[in-house]
């Protein structure tokens, strides 16, 4: 028996439930299914990888914005853990990963930003700047939460022959589940200390939009030239 | 019988009550009392006027930030009414007023920003950027609310011989009472639609700090060289 | 002989030249051509109109951000003229216009924001927040500059039988040419007082991206269900 | 012979020269001189220490804002090095240091923020948000640059009997000189790639204001109750 990825009685879980169709379109996207079956065309995966690297840079900016928006040392440290993970570790791992798929660092860095990458990252950053830390963390949450759900599901199969098993192992790991839980916990906590029910619809709209932008990101991979 | 300047059952009124000593130090400041008695030294008033002009420019920036932070057309229009009032009317009136006290436009514009002016305006702008529209409007509120309370009290006396009667008439007018009520209503409304009790202490701290920075602004006038 | 819409020796003109293919794809888009010929399907125009209303709300937020980012009263007034024009006049005109095309205010306000509308507006807002006033005004400029170029060109034909002549007259008017010139002049001025040649590539990328997002906005109209 | 703390031909050095009187009032402040002589009252030092801890939290927010404002991975990493240093190391060292002077963590955290601390930190944050990365780094620079100059000068004397020698060793170390040089180099680099001479007066005003706010911070220590 595995533990749930996030608490069942907090805002994060309510947000997933409230955006049901968008959530399923994201976590069960054809890109994800074919990645799990190992039938995803390599061109699609490579296109995704390059864009995901560009995504990471803005994602780090968004977590840095969360540090700026924090009110306590504990909040700052929590968000800066994500900034550090991205800048000090994930960008490097990502480039290693790209290399193992035949993409040099120069290839990756010369990649023009796709419209889907741009739309998603700027939406999150702008929503977070306009609102408070809760608005920002809700816009950030579908990424980690969805990847953890996808990773766990795909990791439950035998991937020994799947060319994408390294990706599946990364996002299916207990480490990554912990990252996602941390984000969901922060969503739950900020909701309790800051918001009232009057904000739920607006937060659900933010979560839904970010979730749909994640699905569009998979689609961009699938549509790779 | 006069109507209350703001509703007695909303957040605005609770904030005034929560920062009692700071509020009294602001609305009953020696600068205010002597202005009401007509015994305020002219140098103090002139110094205040020049700094208040510089204050207005940042105050307009803060209301423009409120437009940026808005979610609906109605919210945008409400905040932009303040931006327009300042940029299109009050800066001009202020310069006329300065001229009537022997200060040319050039004198006013060449005035270096006093520390008290800087501290107050940047605190409001920064708090508003870090938080949401409610945080911003709470930081902005002591200015209009306090001036309306002061204006109404001073206007209740006979000011026919008070050299500062034009100032008293401006802030003691029903027009200005309406401006203050509009700001207090917006504080009350945003609290109801966005926040829970967990934010009260933090909002009270913001309101208290802005109130103390208003008192420091009077003191700066009184300490004029 | 008509005067040029903007100065030929400033940054604005250099930016248009630097993004040639994107600029042409924007100002000569099939949506524009068919609008000029009066052959644009009504469904496409209506979809565009509704999204353009939603666009306007964020566009007002972006000009309010420019007021916040200003350093002088003159800069603030220039940007607030755009905020006022949108909030006090254009949103109303837009709704009148929509009504004349059979769209009620309720229809317009209930319209969900299209991805193209979202991507464009958030890009501009986020770029402007990350950078300085010059970055922001460069991201805002393709809208007014391009509409003025389109309006002037289409207005040069006989539109007496064109169902879209009101639209063409609005953007082909001398008034609107003045608005576009004001924006281009501000781009030119800020470049001279703030930037060096080292920023040109980055600013050209911003201008190009905003221009491509304008073209995608036309395409969204054309692709209307 | 010691190497210069920063390059003599860049913007950072020009800014120090341009704000001469403010710079001297900061680096030669009575608080600094008495700290160097070991005659500073312990109460003054303790008050400074507690406020400096509160300062650090906002200083981390400002460097996180610099990450948000960055355009390249290299820029992000440079600013995040400061965020990490503060959140992961300096806040802890600071609390250790406070403990060694008889101040518990609870004492420090319960300290109300002094006006001087507030004014300085919010000025830097707000200036950085309004402008670009160069404006922000210029507002941040006097802190590290001045402490390095002070530390090096005080460390040149025999401090074996000075009760404040740990403080002097920290800021007089080659490590800290490297930190200050890194900040000054970033000021110099951003100036070269982004700005023209038209911005110099404005940047000098920012640097001067931040420098004067540093001097006011020392004075706050000296004025401790």
Order of helices and strands of chain A: HHHHHHHHHHH
Count of discrete domains of chain A: 1
The SS-based structural class of chain A is: mainly alpha
Which word captures the global form of chain A?
A: globular
Outline the low-pLDDT stretches of chain A.
none
N- to C-terminal distance of chain A: 42 Å
Chain pair forming the biggest interface: A-D, 19 and 19 residues
C-alpha-based Rg of chain A, rounded: 17 Å
- What's the overall average pLDDT of chain A, rounded? 95
Number of helices of chain A: 11
What's the structural blueprint in terms of helices and strands?
Four copies of one chain form a homotetramer.
Chain A: H1 11-18, H2 20-27, H3 30-37, H4 42-68, H5 73-100, H6 105-110, H7 115-130, H8 133-155, H9 165-172, H10 174-194, H11 200-222
Helix pairs in contact in A: 2-11, 4-5, 4-7, 4-8, 4-11, 7-8, 7-11, 8-9, 8-10, 8-11
Describe this structure in words.
- 4 copies of one chain form a homotetramer.
- By secondary structure, the first copy, chain A, is mainly alpha-helical.
- Chain A has a single domain, classed as Heme Oxygenase, Chain A.
- Helices cover 78% and strands 0% of the residues of chain A.
- Chain A is built from 11 helices and no strands.
- In chain A, helix 4 packs antiparallel against helix 5, helix 4 runs parallel beside helix 7 and helix 8 packs antiparallel against helix 10.
- The longest helix of chain A is centred in the middle third of the chain and has 28 residues.
- Chain A starts with 10 loop residues before the first helix and ends with a helix.
- The mean pLDDT of chain A is 95.
- Chains in contact: A-B, A-C, A-D, B-C, B-D, C-D.
- Chains B and D meet through helix 7 of B and helix 7 of D.
């Amino acid at each position: 028996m595995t533990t749930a990825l996030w608490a069942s009685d907090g805002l994060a879980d309510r947000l997933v439930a409230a955006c049901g169709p968008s959530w399923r379109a994201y976590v069960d996207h054809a890109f994800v299914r074919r990645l799990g079956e190992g039938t995803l065309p390599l061109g699609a995966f490579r296109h995704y990888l390059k864009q995901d690297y560009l995504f990471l840079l803005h994602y780090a900016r968004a977590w840095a914005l969360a540090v700026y928006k924090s009110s306590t040392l504990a909040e700052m440290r929590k968000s800066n853990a994500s900034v550090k993970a991205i800048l000090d570790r994930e960008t490097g791992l990502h480039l290693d990963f790209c290399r193992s798929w035949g993409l040099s660092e120069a290839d990756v860095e010369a990649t023009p930003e796709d419209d889907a990458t741009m739309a998603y990252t700027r939406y999150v950053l702008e929503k977070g700047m306009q609102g408070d830390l809760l608005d920002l963390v809700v816009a950030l949450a579908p990424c980690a939460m969805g990847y953890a759900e996808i990773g766990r599901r795909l990791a439950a199969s035998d991937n020994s022959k799947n060319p994408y098993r390294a990706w599946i192992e990364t996002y299916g790991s207990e480490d990554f589940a912990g990252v996602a839980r941390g984000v969901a916990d922060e969503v739950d906590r900020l909701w309790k200390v800051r918001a009232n029910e009057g904000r739920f619809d607006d937060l659900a709209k933010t979560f839904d939009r970010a979730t749909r932008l994640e699905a569009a990101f998979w689609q961009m991979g699938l549509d790779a030239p």
